[in-house]
Amino acid sequence: MCLSCKVVSDSYEAFLDIPLDIKAASSVTAALADFVKPEQLDGDNCFKCSQCNKTVAASKRFTIHRAPKVLTVCLKRFEDFTSRKISKLVKYSNCLDLRPYMSQTDGEPLFYSLYAVLVHSGNSCHSGHYFCYTKVKSDFLPQKRKMCAEEDKLSRQ
Question: What pTM value is reported for the model?
Answer without folding.
Answer: 0.74
